[in-house]
Write a structure and sequence with these properties.
With 338 residues, the chain is α/β, with parallel strands linked by helices. Helices cover 39% and strands 21% of the residues.
């Protein structure tokens, strides 16, 4: 009996070692001498469309480069992922530009982790500032004393708008509640406006615009410069004219981005292969079928808005396709390839 118990303990230890190896992006040599890499890709809730994107991206990579084996792992999202990365549980993860920057620099409640690198960004999330047209509100400054939802209570959107409005000295009466609560309150005209993060045309905003005539508020060029100067983890986007019923001009607005992070310890060659597979016609066909919202997004151009240094493999790929990578995004470990 003691021997059986010892064998069980040994098997448990070996299993834990295997899981740890996969989580940290370990490598091993196969029988044919080829080096193989195993990754646990930290993502988000499995019900999210972003989870679906990463399942597709992982399949695209492993299909074209079988030596890169990726297990997609459901997590609590970006903040949870940052904590796991800091503990060394993985080297590959979903990231959000806001938490990417804060973790890289050790700001707010994030443990400093300057070994993270941006591999790519794939989902821009511009802020849609929606108001009831009948209120006569034409600018963010007009929100003084308006009843306005900054986003779902406790969400990234709400926290982001609070700090953006603080920088821009925008004051309003904050409405607290879920996004569903805000939609109902707006439709019933109990609040004057709301905020929704999402690339246009966002389905939530479309639903709101179908019930109430809306204006979409934007920021000025001067405000855009101030936001990027004070809060460099937001980039600036343009919501095109005609994106929503009644919106007949382009609107400038801040945005955050969702992307993929890869630790600097992962080789430039591996990061380059990941980009090559993901952005190939075959790769786009694989992940595009599970995440159609990303088909029309120029991921290479979007990635150049990164608030932290890029992974060396990303730099190699982006340069190879003819893009000018800003010096501040090139990490010290990058090696020029002839």
């Amino acid at each position: 009996m003691k021997r059986v118990g010892s064998i069980k303990v040994l098997l448990m230890v070996l299993s834990l070692l295997f899981i740890t190896a996969c989580s940290s992006g370990a490598s091993e040599s196969s029988a044919d001498g080829e080096e193989r890499h195993m990754f646990s890709l930290l993502t988000t809730d499995s019900s999210s469309s972003f989870y679906a994107f990463f399942v597709g991206a992982a399949n695209a990579i492993s299909t074209q480069f079988p030596e890169l084996q990726i297990t997609v792992t459901e997590t609590g999202g970006a903040t949870d992922n940052m904590e796991r990365l800091a503990r060394g549980e993985s080297t590959f993860s979903l990231g959000v530009s806001v938490s990417d920057y804060k973790a890289f620099n050790g700001l707010d409640d994030f443990e400093k982790n300057d070994s993270i690198r941006a591999l790519w960004y794939f989902a821009p999330s511009p802020f849609n500032f929606v108001v009831n047209k009948s209120t006569g509100i034409e600018s963010l400054e007009d929100l003084v004393e308006a009843d306005f939802s900054l986003g779902g209570s406790g969400t990234t959107t709400e926290n982001s708008i609070r700090e953006i409005f603080d920088v821009l000295n925008i004051e309003t009466n904050h409405y607290s509640g879920s996004m569903s609560d805000a939609q109902n309150a707006f439709s019933d005209r109990r609040i004057d406006g709301l905020t929704k993060a999402g690339a246009a045309p966002d389905s939530y905003v479309q639903q709101v615009a179908a019930q109430v005539d809306i204006n979409l508020l934007g920021i000025t060029e001067e405000q855009a410069e101030l936001v990027q100067q004070e809060l460099p983890y937001y980039s600036i986007a343009t919501i095109p004219s005609g994106s929503y019923r009644g919106v007949d001009e382009d609107v400038l607005t801040p945005q955050f981005m969702l992307g993929a992070l890869l630790d600097e310890s992962v080789s430039q060659e591996v990061g380059y292969k990941m980009w090559t597979a993901m952005w190939s016609d075959e790769g786009k066909g694989i992940w595009g079928s599970s995440y159609p919202a990303g088909k029309d997004i120029n991921l290479p151009e979007l990635t150049l808005n990164s608030p932290i240094p890029l992974h060396a493999g990303a730099v190699q790929f982006l340069k190879e396709i003819g893009l000018d990578v800003p010096e501040e995004l090139i990490p010290a470990e990058y090696e020029e390839v002839n």
